Amino acid sequence: MSEQTQRPESGPLAPGRLPKVVDYVMPDDVPHSRARWPLEPTRAALLIHDMQAYFLRIYPAGSELIDGVVARIRALRTRCDELGIPVFYTAQFPHQDVRDRGLQADLWGPGMRPDASETEIVEALRPLGSHEVLRKWRYSAFQRSPLEPMMTARRRDQLIVVGVYAQIGVLLTAADAFMRDVRPFVVADAVADFSADRHRAALEYVGQHCGIVTRANDLLETL
Questions:
Q1: Which of 144, 137, 151, 116 lies closest to 45 in space, CA to CA?
Q2: Which residue among 5, 44, 47, 152 is buried most deeply as judged by most CB within 10 Å?
Q3: Could you give the count of Cα atoms lying within 13 Å of 137 in the half-sphere of its Cβ?
Q4: Catalytic annotation, residues
Q5: Domain that holds residue 212
Q6: Angle formed by the axes of helices 196-209 and 171-179, nearest 10°
Q7: Residue 96: CB atoms within 10 Å
């Protein structure tokens, strides 16, 4: 994908709607992480962030980017299940009262319709019986949700974050985790965004300010 093709996708976003995304090449460079926390399976939880049809439909059909992200998330989820690492999902829900949706309505409109074609988590990642699905209210998965107390109850203070979108919910969840003394690990090739530039910017922020940036294969080897 040429820089010229990608540049329009990095510009200002129109209010009230999600952009259509030109499939981009996954950034192959993982930015430096200032933190040096070791990932410990007995302390970790996995968060699969917003992998619903509504959020993935902005990518072209048969997107190599998203197919790769889904495959890596599935591999990480399988390994976490094998090791007894808790798996959490976030999922927004339709027909949000305007008072609950708040300022998000000004930027993103009313959200998804009550239709399975928008609300369902992508089939390859459908939650299993042992997984917890949390209602998503704001960019950060911690806001107005039981994620933190559920992690505390399971004695977990490390959070692996995967999903969409890297520069919005993934980044804000990682930053919020850091501010709660939960160590975030963002998987560079198991997240996606509106463009390669935005994707890379999210990873750089995490690495410099609030967490560890890693790759799926490295994480699988560690686990």
A1: 151
A2: 47
A3: 11
A4: 50
A5: 39-222
A6: 10
A7: 17
Q: Is 8 a member of any domain?
A: no
End-to-end Cα separation, the chain, in angstroms: 33
Q: Output the domain CATH number for residue 140.
A: 3.40.50.850
131 token code pair = 């997984």
Q: Are 205 and 168 in contact (CB under 8 A)?
A: no
Separation CA 202–CA 97 (nearest Å) = 30
Q: Which residues pair with residue 185 across a beta bridge?
A: 160, 212
- Name residue, tokens 């975030």: 184
Pairing of the two strands 132-135 and 212-214: unpaired
> How does pLDDT run across 109-167, given as a tens digit for each residue?
777 777 666 778 999 999 999 999 999 988 999 999 999 999 999 999 999 999 999 99
pTM, full prediction = 0.89
Place of tokens 């992508």: 122
pLDDT confidence of residue 64: 96
